[in-house]
Write a structure and sequence with these properties.
alpha/beta; INH-QAR; 13 helices; Rossmann fold; AraC family transcriptional regulator; two-stranded antiparallel sheet; Arc Repressor Mutant, subunit A; Class_I_gatase-like; transcription; transcription regulation; globular; 2 domains
Length: 332
Amino acid sequence: MAQHIKIFILLAPNPLMLDFAGPVEVLRRANKIQTDFVFAVEYIAPHAEMMTSAGLPVSGLGKLPKYLPSKSYLMISGTTADILGSGDTPSRAQIEKDKQTIISWLRNIVTKDQTLLTICSGALLAAHAGLFDGYRCTTHHECLDELRSISPHIRIEENRLFTEDRNRFASAGITSGTDLMLHIVGKKLGLAAAADIAKHMVVFARRNGDAPQLSPFVQGRSHLHPTVHRIQDLIAADPTKDWDVQTLSREAHMSARHFSRLFNAQTGLSVPDYVNGLRIAIAENALRAQKVNIEHLVGDLGFGSSRHFRRAWQKHHQLSPTQWRDQQIGNA
């Protein structure tokens, strides 16, 4: 018989839809691909109906319960002051009142028997309730200063997609909430199942919590040049392919010299550095996940030689791949 895992989704005032919709889609897919576990989701909030960041109200929400079952999960969404369209946006006074209601409820209800997950600014509500005192924690990079001001007892981790400290998890928010839930599901169902879910959701690369909030997969993407974006999409779809300037310049319908200059000007990176940055990010995830053979990894990632791989690695890390992997395992 399948084991039921209760997961409460707490919608804070003006919740960001991506904060809770992405993680819940991970759970929905997890329930479909296996029969060992059933993730039973229940939505709770200060009101039966809440306006979301997209200007779309969600209704039928449950009340904040008087207790949470042992070994259940509680996920707190982030909030925003910006609502799409006018709609029936709650007043600032009502939003503040709802936040205080949630903080008080968290302080009185959540214990060490539950697993806490916060998405984006949801960490601020949990921090006000004292739930991150003595724990590692992160939040969206725009909320870090506010998080610091709440309590000196929180061990804040900057530039992280998510943190894990015993039964307290915190994500940087928005899309990183999906990464966090994939991590949670992976711990229950295994990395292969999590990877299958990520593939189904067209999440390009399942990211580890220690990855920076500004991932290599979005680095150099702030420009507006459509051809360079198209080439970057081509590279990102298969970073292990032998992408050289000549090949990519033909895809861009430009001379190699003109393309190389254009790519560098728009991204701030040379073509080899951009390609190798994506490959090193994949190598990091592989090294964290298991004790892979580094020589095999060199070939799998498309590096022509161990020397080529190590030269690219040294641009990102002072430690050797083996030393870096051992350090990651030691910190886990």
